[in-house]
Design brief:
Elements lengths: L3 H8 L3 H11 L5 E2 L5 E2 L2 H15 L4 H4 L4 H19 L3 H9 L6 H16 L3 H13 L3 H21 L5 H23 L16 E7 L6 H12 L3 E9 L1 H11 L3 E6 L7 H14 L5 E6 L1 H4 L1 H8 L8 E3 L2 H10 L1
Parallel strand pairs: 3-4, 3-5, 5-6, 6-7
Antiparallel strand pairs: 1-2
């Protein structure tokens, strides 16, 4: 039997929503223990998942609450068929995508990414949100971040560069994803989402995530913050455009184990000034605090990076090129 906390994690429905659906609509009437605690069955969890999916598609819980399980399943199938038709995915293509999951996990989400790019042109926010949520439901958090969110951001950037969409479309999606990822960091940190890689002792180590002054690209540090939180680390997300002295003060106050800087080569800061910022950060941090620099600096500025790392003091700084490398580095900490 499952507690309301377990069910909240399994369905992505808040405990408040679960109680409201029970009290107001009678959608689920779980058993109660002698002490009054709710206890759910797997069948009830599956019903709640379908109800959540249907309400996400615009139906009201008041319309659905009294339907039988068989009726809900039929309705859900119709919505799934409609969604797949809209994405122009037939059964054979879907099956092939699933078969290719192990060899190339991104392929599982590629049709959803293509669908979002199409809907973005017409600013169809509801369909974009639905597609993001479906991708979230069909995978665990780590897979969702690495194989859906990251490729989606890359492909949207390329679409802007190639003139397929314009900057307003990119900003539209950015606004959605910034809110979504910020909420995800909060949910993971508060154990509202299952964390299979969670290690209890990691919570004593604090991570700070920020970008340098002039760098407004925060998706990299948002995704990285989620990955660190999944392993149990105490995460403090400061966001973008952080002055070096403010970052230093925060690190000192929190006694941070690691400060993670997300650095993009196309930020407003020139390379020499950017490397000087990084050097000052490391110099002024507590000697026990590690500095990790994520981003594309070594690819965009190979000469400057090589010169910077030739200094023995700078060799203590970890340069990380991608999310998989970041995740592996977390395991070695």
């Amino acid at each position: 039997m499952l507690t309301i906390k377990n069910v909240s994690k399994m369905t992505n429905l808040s405990e408040h929503t679960l109680r409201a659906w029970e009290k107001r609509y009678g959608a689920i009437i779980p058993d109660r223990s002698i002490g009054g605690r709710r206890s759910y069955t797997i069948e009830e969890v599956n019903r709640l998942k379908i109800l959540a999916n249907l309400t996400l598609n615009g139906l009201k819980i008041s319309q659905l609450a009294q339907l039988k399980n068989s009726e809900l399943e039929s309705l859900n199938i119709e919505f799934e068929k409609s969604f797949l038709k809209k994405q122009k995915i037939n059964n054979s293509e879907s099956k092939q995508l699933l078969e290719n999951k192990n060899s190339n996990p991104v392929l599982v989400f590629q049709d959803s990414i293509n669908f979002i790019l199409i809907q973005l042109k017409d600013y169809n926010i509801k369909d974009i949100l639905n597609s993001i949520q479906r991708a979230r439901w069909q995978s665990d958090i780590k897979e969702f971040l690495l194989n859906f969110i990251s490729p989606l951001l890359n492909q949207v950037g390329l679409a802007v560069e190639n003139g397929k969409i314009d900057i307003s479309h990119e900003h539209c999606l950015s606004a959605i994803l910034k809110y979504y990822l910020s909420d995800l960091i909060f949910q993971i940190s508060n154990s509202s989402i299952p964390r299979p890689e969670y290690i209890e002792t990691n919570k004593i180590s604090s991570f700070i995530f920020a970008t340098p002054e002039g760098d407004l690209h925060e998706f990299g540090i948002q995704i990285s913050a989620c990955l660190a939180s999944l392993k149990g680390y105490d995460v403090f997300f400061l966001g973008c455009n952080m002055p070096e002295k403010a970052l230093q003060a925060c690190s000192k106050s929190l006694k941070a184990k690691v400060v993670v800087l997300g650095c993009m080569a196309n930020s407003k800061m020139p390379p020499l000034k950017l490397f000087d910022y990084i050097k000052k950060c490391k110099k002024n941090l507590n000697p026990r605090t590690q500095l990790w620099v994520g981003g594309n600096l070594n690819l965009a500025y190979p000469r400057e990076t090589a010169i910077f790392l030739s200094d023995n003091e700078n060799k203590k700084i970890k340069f990380i090129s991608n999310f998989n490398e970041f995740d592996s580095t977390l395991n070695l900490l």
